[in-house]
Write a structure and sequence with these properties.
alpha+beta; Ribosomal Protein L22, Chain A; two-stranded antiparallel sheet; 5 helices; 40% helix; globular; fatty acid biosynthesis; metal-binding; lipid biosynthesis
Length: 124
């Protein structure tokens, strides 16, 4: 059963400007593993915008927005084929009763935008 759906659209240019204006944006928002992935991708704003959109989309799927946890508590990873998935901190799992759930993630880009879609499925 689906217990949450969230989507987010991020302007890639906005993320690029934030990266230039706010040096601590990356370290304050993303985990070390995510930052390593970004470095492997040459800190491409499109990649970072997609990752940010995932965090926002998941917060919307939870129904709270970013309340009661930090964006760093949501970590975007990729499998060997590049498929995105998220790992969430145990504090989020406990607070939202997500111990036995599956989180589905999809990310897409255009020249201007990055979009992420998240589904939280119960009992998987």
């Amino acid at each position: 059963m689906i217990i949450g759906i969230g989507t987010d659209i991020v302007k890639i240019d906005r993320i690029s400007k934030i990266m230039k204006r706010t040096p601590n944006f990356i370290k304050g928002t993303f985990t070390e593993e995510e930052i390593s992935y970004f470095e492997m991708k040459k800190n491409n704003p499109e990649t970072i915008a997609g990752a940010f959109a995932v965090k926002e989309a998941l917060s919307k799927a939870l129904g709270t927005g970013v309340r009661g946890f930090r964006l760093k508590d949501i970590e975007l990873r990729h499998d060997n084929l590049g498929k995105p998935y998220v790992v969430i901190d145990n504090s989020i799992r406990k607070a939202f009763g997500l111990n036995k759930c599956k989180i589905h993630v999809s990310i897409s880009h255009s020249r201007e935008d990055a979009v992420a879609f998240v589904i939280i499925e119960e009992g998987v």
